[in-house]
Amino acid sequence: MTGLISKAIEVGVRQRYPRLFSPVTLGAMRLENRIVVPAIQAGFARNHDLGERFIERYAQLARGGAGMIVLEATTVHPASGPHPTMPIAYRSSDRAAFAHLAEIVEGAGCRLVAQLHHTGSSRVAADGAVERIAPSPVPDFYSGEVPRAMTPVEIDETVSAFVSAAAVFASAGFSGVEVHAAHGHLLSRFLSPHWNERTDSYGGSLHNRTRIVREIVAGVRAACGADFVVGLRITGDEGIPDGIGPAQAAAVLTDICSATPVDYVSLTQGTVAPNFGDHIPDMHYPPTPFLPLTSDLRARIGAAVPVIAVGRIRTADDAERALSEGCCDLVAMGRALIADPDLPRKARSGGEVRRCLYCNLCWGRVQAGQAGECVVNPGWGRPSPLRVTRRRRITVVGGGVAGLEAAAGIAERGHEVTLLHGPRLGGKIAAESTLPGRAELGLLVNELHRRAIAAGVGFRELPRPADADAVLAEAPDAVILATGARMPRPTLFADAESVSDVGIRELVDGIQQPRDSPLPTGDRRGVLVVVDDYHDTAVYALTELLAPDHARTVLLCTRPEIGAFVPWVGRLGIQRRLSAAGVDCVTSVVPVAWEPGALRYRSADGTLTTQPHVDRIIWATTRTPDLEIADRLTRAGVPYHVVGDASGPKTLVDAIEHARTLVADFH
Predict the structure, then answer these.
(1) Alpha-helical segments (H) within 547-583
(2) Whether residues 502 and 648 fall in one domain
(3) Phi, psi (rounded to 5 degrees) for 459
(4) Would you say residue 144 has pLDDT above 90?
(5) pTM
């Protein structure tokens, strides 16, 4: 009977995903399906060492059923200035670890390919730690650094470094390598006429600009043999003046392959420029936003080179559609597979898949030199905590995401858990999910709720915030306080009677469904002022929502730039959307006085400015923890732990990670 059920499921999978789970050949390498884990930095290495968590991350992905994994960007030469959290290929002491990794991944039936990488001068901020080199001394958009033009000797050394790194991975048992020539890193700057101003044999004509890549590919073929796969990651559209566009990308690839064919091309987009967010599109982008670009390149180059599509391919359905419509030959599902490494296996069996939010908080942490924790999969790369031997009665106070994560995790370990919560599960994140472009945050609340129910958590909804009496009535052995944090009303408005002011949290809590269109021009109100001392996404999404209802909207930010707590890739999108909504952003200012209809603020140089005709003020202040019931618990002798914002304001990913750490240490 079991065999018949399994066969029926397999037939159903083939009918629903006939292309996705069909085999494909790249060079001499056969893949069992067309799902690719692209190279995504996780920040798990320590001093470049591949530790247990680094290895376990890839083991989980291989067990989950992907057809091919591309190892995260691995530096080929010290001149790249790799961060200590990145793997490197030029240190002999790492070769045994690479061989161990290959044995695990390839042994699970998944092919393993290493991405070879050299940063060059690409940076979002100047660090001065390493002299930056590039094909030409063209200043970076963000860091402002002017790199030194590479000498012919340095170019030869770089080619040799790529080839030597490929040989390391071939000897370690990898199936191939992927040459990284995208995203504004070193090799992409040779390919792009925007960055390459050389007049020697590595610059000028398209054929000269591709020379360094052709030399690398030819060198890898000679060193590693014809059966060793060589892939290429290039940018399909840099989106900058005189840069690589779709037609140029096809010409670049054709020129490279005419002399030194590659086994596949992974097509990405964007560079380190004002369109930085394009190379890792967040939840504000539509699903699969770059499939037209991929389809265009595939049509231009024909079927000679298999093409991997990438960019917010969220589900197996998205992937199957991309393949069946002929946009690509394989699909890269990076962040979706971080959220749930078992996505391929679950797509086959009909299991419940954890959905990525595309919040890019994982990327933000890696960019800051931290481990790239995942909001919906905080345990990725770690073994699951063991179940406890002594079951206890635990009460969790607060139904925000930290409270839900703690409740689900503690119950999964075997404790009896009751969650006391208000009318809306998910707290501020559930509220924020009602704002423009933030709907996918609701997936997190749904996933945490699902986990908690499956683990046996008891839910008790209260009409008002839980007090100490309600908690003690549960007779808990221990309490988890996930009571969040509050935004205090600014003292400037404490005694004001003639201002319609409201805190962002109270206002967002009252929004059930965003409006589809703005008010007619004649119905719009006066000036809306948003006072931003919070600097996170909800402030800007709410401003974007309300701006069309007002004749003018002014965002007053107390910091030198808006979005200080938002990762770079998301910050740029915020600025574009606020600009499109007509919001006037004023930075480095502090409100100092209010009189009916007018708000006065001071700039960094001491200048006072008065904004007249103010109809409404929304304020977002620094949060303060809500721990009113802690003293009663202490007096009652009930042990408690504080988690999430209640222990101090946190980002979403930090709040989830804080709860996960509590769960791991909870006995």
Answers:
(1) 568-580
(2) no
(3) -105, 135
(4) no
(5) 0.93
